[in-house]
Amino acid sequence: METISAASQLFQFIVTGLTVGAIYAMVAIGFNIIYNVTEIINLAQGEFVMLGGLIMVFMHVTVGLPMILAFVATVLLVTLTGTMLDRLAIKPIRQPSVMTLIIATIAASIVIKGTAMLIWGKSPYDLPAFSGRTPIELGGVIIQPQYLWVIGFLAVVAIGLTLFFNRTILGKAMAACADNPDAARLVGINVQYMVLLSFALSAAIGAIAGMTLTPIALMDYDRGAMLAIKGFGAAILGGLGSFSGAVLGGLLIGLIESLGAGFLLSGYKDAYALIVLLLVLFLRPSGMMGNFEVTKFKRF
Amino acid sequence: MVKKSATALIACLVIIGFSFQPALAAYKVGAIFSVTGGASFLGDPEKKTAQMVVDQINGDGGINGEKIELIVYDDETDPTKCNLHAKKLITQDKVVAVIGPSVSGLSLAIIPVFEKFKTPLVSCAASYKIVYNEKTGKPYKWVFKTPQSDSLAVEAIYTKMQSMGINKIAVITVTDGYGASGRHELLRLAQAYKMDIVADEKYDPKDTDMTAQLTKIKGLAPQAIVNWSVGPTQVTVLRNWRDLGMTSITFFQSHGFGSRKNIELAAGAAEGVLCPLGACNIADLLPEGHPQKQVTMAYQKSYTETYNEPLSSFGGHAWDAIQLVVDALKAVGGDRAKIRDYLENKKGFVGQHGVFNFSPEDHNGLTKEAFQMVVVKDGDWALAE
Amino acid sequence: MLRIRKAPICVGALFILLFPWVAGRLPAIEHYPDLMVFAGIYCLMTIGMSLLMGYAGQISLGHAAFYGIGAYASGILTTQYNLNPWLCILLGSVAATAVAVVVGAPSLRLRGHYLAMATLAFGIIVNIVFREEAEWTGGPDGMGGIPGLDIFGYSFDSIHKYYYLVWIVVAIAFFFTIRLIQSPTGRALRAIHASEAAASAMGIDISRSKIVVFAFSAILASVAGSLYAHYMNFINPSTFDTLFSIKLVIMIALGGMHTIWGAVVGSVLFAFLSFEWLHQFGEYEIVVYGLVLMMVTIYLPEGLVGLPGRIVQRVRR
Known about the structure:
The complex is a heterotrimer of chains A (about 300), B (about 375) and C (about 325).
Chain A lengths: L5 H33 L6 H19 L3 H24 L7 H23 L15 E3 L2 E3 L1 H23 L1 H11 L1 H6 L4 H27 L6 H15 L4 H21 L5 H15 L17
Antiparallel strand pairs in A: 1-2
Helix pairs in contact in A: 1-5, 1-6, 1-8, 1-9, 1-10, 2-3, 2-4, 2-8, 2-9, 3-8, 5-6, 5-8, 9-10, 10-11
Chain B lengths: L1 H18 L7 E7 L6 H20 L8 E7 L4 H14 L4 E3 L4 H14 L3 E3 L19 E3 L4 H15 L3 E7 L2 H14 L5 E8 L7 H10 L3 E5 L4 H11 L6 E4 L6 H6 L8 E4 L15 H15 L5 H20 L3 H9 L4 E2 L4 E2 L15 E6 L2 E4 L2
Parallel strand pairs in B: 1-2, 1-3, 3-4, 4-5, 6-7, 6-8, 8-9
Antiparallel strand pairs in B: 10-13, 11-12, 13-14
Chain C lengths: L5 H20 L6 H24 L8 H18 L3 H23 L4 H21 L1 H4 L12 E2 L2 E2 L3 H24 L1 H11 L1 H6 L4 H27 L9 H14 L4 H16 L9 H15 L7 H10 L1
Antiparallel strand pairs in C: 1-2
């Protein structure tokens, strides 16, 4: 008979929580990139994750491209979708208010989801794990190799973005748009282009989240909304606009869900994370790492 | 101004009114399935099956020379839509009977409509509550259902466990109607079968990982796990079970596991998993003399040929429902009350999921023998001895 | 939109009054009054939400929770405690008000997206409670056996009777809301929407005004929930999920956020689109629905009620 000690149980919960949390964190980072440049909450963010998973399945399993090529092709295709989202659904809006922009992204997410349903049908798809499915055992704790890929990609994305925004001209230009679009325009930054870039970048990160998640949880057309809500929660919990906040928020929500399911009633798993989120907001109305000034809209 | 606008409005209404004229047919049968939305994996094969059966019958000349028209509505797994469609089918499309909905919660939602408008409903959902009115202790007068009640699946599983000497089990269920109903039955019947339930865990239908729940179960060391869910999560939970090295704990799935697609998606993790299935899933495994051998083989052949996709057992529920209605139409014609009376007394109807024997006390007409215990072996079903 | 013109109200009232009669003459739209019952129930909610969003500028993505609180109050109290349905509607509203005040007081201090997330979280938590407390709520399968409504022996047992009942309630809510907009509270709300700092400097108690509107919209949603429960005779948690909260916002956006008419037009249109017209597109329904929504946000940012004004502008030019 299998047995497991209380300590390994706890570590197992933490490992699982961190993995699921890493996915939420990647979605939250996607929210922040667009939010920072445009103040738009892109509720279609979850659909990028869904598309990432399904396109990867198509490229790798159906077409038969090698893993790396399929990975690159998927990122490019989803990025293209992200830029189309900006050009077709966001940019044409002549009188953007926060409400119309929220509705516009919801409308876009419905269109993307519906199109995915027409292309892939309603059944779930599986993707081979990046480096096999033989679990690694560490003192009673089981780690799937794919867990390491998920957490590894989160680290790569987080470090890459930090370098991009702090070290490159392009990144600094985007950050400038976020701080003050008018001033950015005055110094010759093409704000429209930066907005487009932000959509492209966050779509690419969504695609990475989707591709790394699919071998663990399968993927179907209807997954986007749930991931968007969890990612939005993570972004808010960490403080909108803060990348370290997004990572912290995502991992925290994942951990609470996993520990809640393990130690308390698992039926209320999702509620525990949200109750913590509400309590944090009531105590700190701008999230854990957020800046209160950011919470004031420039345009509502 | 007011007058003009009012006239314009009424004119609009008239135009709208005439633009949708329904076509006429001899026998109209309604169907409500969850073709899209969260339960589309049920509604999609059901819709395809019902349409295929009706096309076949019409192709062979219809019922006593009359064609059948199948009117299918998609409830999108939304109770309000389901309710509206039911009333529209009855009052406006004037159907003789309705098959569906796919989901227990929606079937329960429209029972009041069918009782009120006195129209037969043959549901394709599992919960025993659909054919059991807790207030009267009898079935609802106008409502029937074809899927085996979840209580029968639980009995089949518990019977199998007893023969394997298992009495300490963990239950893990999804928090939708299907999982909740199965969980309710698992807990209710545990005492009668002397089962000790040491863990009662749940997960959300959109969850990505159930390792936490399974790790908790692992710590309690049960002899077997019963999982009750449909959709992708039942595959994820299996993979987690395998990855956590828990394969020495026997894994039972519900009858919702009944699609070869699930074995494929489990990527090897389904090996050794037991589940109760209707004959429809395992047509080729049935012995030659089995009463359902012929109908199940025929259905499997025509479904895979028509739609070029593997059969799912849910389509079989729709097959049973539409064939029962067709059978009644052949026998008594298009009168709603006569169809109901005929169905209530129908005996020995050989369907995809069992041989149905209806009675005024039983509007499901199946016993636990409608289930075969099946084990996954070498990536395919095999009968468990 | 301070002035409420008489003409549209008369046309609207006439339309509501005659609609079942007209529909009854036309076999193809015979069932439309049934759709209008649900449209009316949605209307009740969107009227309250348009006050909250369009006038006070506060977003809520959790109103399905109040809809559910009303419905479950009616369902549980009638089936398990045999209380009078009308009393249950009242108790449901009391419960919704209490929850609105408790949740609203800390939440409404939040701004913009933070408020959106807080209300979203609240809605999800309430839905989980409906799903998990099966002893009372019947769990995910839901609860049946909820009685219909009657008054002094007159039973609202047909679609047409219930249609008039629902729309009378909508009319009452409509006029009550107009009174509220024209009252000092209404002026305070508009001031808050324009600038919280300025409103506060003028001595308006901002948090109190926000909570009053939030509670008012919660009451309307709760009454809508009760009416829904007594009409369907059955409720289950999926009706009151987050998706529905978002649909409410979509209804308001479709109709137009800045007038109460937008709420009315939006919810009726939404009901017909989602229950009837979009079905013509079969599998493509969901894509068409998304595209319609996208077109509205791009070409009609003030919603459909802005359409006549736009046409007039075009013609004059």
